[in-house]
Amino acid sequence: MFSVINLGLRFVLEIILLFSLGYWGFHAGQDVWLSIILGLGLPLLTAVIWGMIISPKASIKLPIGGVLLIEAVLFAAGVLALIDSGFRVSAYLFGVAALVNRCIVIRWKMQP
């Protein structure tokens, strides 16, 4: 039961990651087209990278160290996007939740 809750939390954290990058992208661009490109492109690029490298059915199999590095970079980008958007407390809570969640996934061997 606990593993289902933790994997559900992991999914919610992934959605928050995509949302934070999209929100930042839509508000970071100086003109409308750049905002649209960043707002849609960053979450799309992140989802593609996640699907190809981090997801359980990833097409590119890296050692766990590589997966953790890429995942850390993506979540750090999400935290920085939230901070830059003015959501400091949310960014810190998101970062801590992602870190704790990942530690539980590793400790309980929830990822192949």
TrEMBL record:
<feature type="transmembrane region" description="Helical">
    <location>
        <begin position="62"/>
        <end position="83"/>
    </location>
</feature>
<feature type="transmembrane region" description="Helical">
    <location>
        <begin position="89"/>
        <end position="108"/>
    </location>
</feature>
<dbReference type="Pfam" id="PF10823">
    <property type="entry name" value="DUF2568"/>
</dbReference>
<keyword id="KW-1133">Transmembrane helix</keyword>
<feature type="transmembrane region" description="Helical">
    <location>
        <begin position="7"/>
        <end position="26"/>
    </location>
</feature>
<protein>
    <recommendedName>
        <fullName>DUF2568 domain-containing protein</fullName>
    </recommendedName>
</protein>
<keyword id="KW-0812">Transmembrane</keyword>
<dbReference type="InterPro" id="IPR021214">
    <property type="entry name" value="DUF2568"/>
</dbReference>
<feature type="transmembrane region" description="Helical">
    <location>
        <begin position="32"/>
        <end position="55"/>
    </location>
</feature>
<keyword id="KW-0472">Membrane</keyword>
